[in-house]
Amino acid sequence: MFTKKNLLLISLLSVAFLASAQKVVEPANTDPEWSKPYPSFQIVGNLYYVGTYELASYLIVTHQGNILINTGLAASAPMIKANIEALGFKLADIRILLNTQAHYDHMGAMAAIKKSTGAKMMVDEGDSGAVADGGRSDYSKDGSVSLFAPVKVDQILHNGDTIKLGGMQLVMLHHPGHTKGSCSFLFDVKDAKRSYRVLIANMPTIVTDKRFSDIPAYPNIAKDYAYTLNAMKNLSFDIWLASHASQFELESKHKPGSGYNPSAFMDREAYDAELKDLQEQYFKKVNGN
């Protein structure tokens, strides 16, 4: 439901979107694995992987249209389309666009896909400004240029909001720190054998070399990281995935052509180990090491 605050914010974001329609400069020398092709496949039930070797994109298929989460780099748009079609689905059937963070490596092709499909862009409030201005307002950047094509925000999301489509219900979890509106998604899927609780996690990696106290554009960054790390430790799920394929060890868990195997992604131990490592990095950061 749209509140007066949300409608006002969306109106302001539309102005920001139009004002930011300027030169987009995606950083050069990106990791080649970010754009390396990877065959799409069925993860579990109606959830599919349609991203690249390293940048994860997820397709959730329903009888009322589909949901796409993340898009990778700008040049990855044709690859995502091809991956979706290889599964027997159509890009045009995407109705909702979501992201786990407003960085160019996950938002690069979002504007092109939105234009092609007419899908609604739904964004965590903390990242809504960065989505609308192409990342210029990201606290870790200098704001001189857009790093990805700005995307008009159609709906603002808050912690615990539910995205509904065709019987699917995705709960958005506000997990700030990496960006002001980084978020994860928790939802249930089914196959012929059972139901699975799935977490698409935005792992709270630290992206700045500066001390937290030296980031006036994000005064609550230390508190947000602490909140997110604690919140993520307490989540319950069967399967977990992430924004980057290497974070959940996609290459070792699924070999192209290996077939349907949801159990490969039921790996709580790896999730806890990843969070423990991030917690240690956070402690070093706040202690000035």
Structural account:
This protein is an alpha/beta fold and 289 residues long. It has a single domain, classed as Ribonuclease Z/Hydroxyacylglutathione hydrolase-like (Metallo-beta-lactamase, Chain A, 4-Layer Sandwich), CATH 3.60.15.10. 28% of the residues lie in helices and 21% in strands. It has a seven-stranded mixed β-sheet. A five-stranded mixed β-sheet has the order 8-9-10-11-12, with no helix packed on it. Strand 6 (120-124), helix 5 (125-132) and strand 7 (155-157) form a beta-alpha-beta unit. The longest helix is centred in the C-terminal third of the chain and has 19 residues, at 268-286. The chain is globular and about 50 Å long. 45% of the residues are buried.
Features:
MBL_Glyoxalase_II; 289 residues; metal ion binding; alpha/beta; single chain; Metallo-beta-lactamase, Chain A; 12 strands; seven-stranded mixed sheet
State the helicity in percent bands: 25-40%
What is the CATH superfamily?
Answer: Ribonuclease Z/Hydroxyacylglutathione hydrolase-like
- Class inferred from helices and paired strands: alpha/beta
Total domain count: 1
Spans of at least 5 consecutive residues with low confidence: 12-21
InterPro entries: MBL_Glyoxalase_II, Metallo-B-lactamas, RibonucZ/Hydroxyglut_hydro
Signal peptide: 1-21
Domain Metallo-beta-lactamase: 54-244
Organism: Chitinophaga niastensis
How do you describe this structure in short?
The chain is α/β, with parallel strands linked by helices and 289 residues long. Helices cover 28% and strands 21% of the residues.
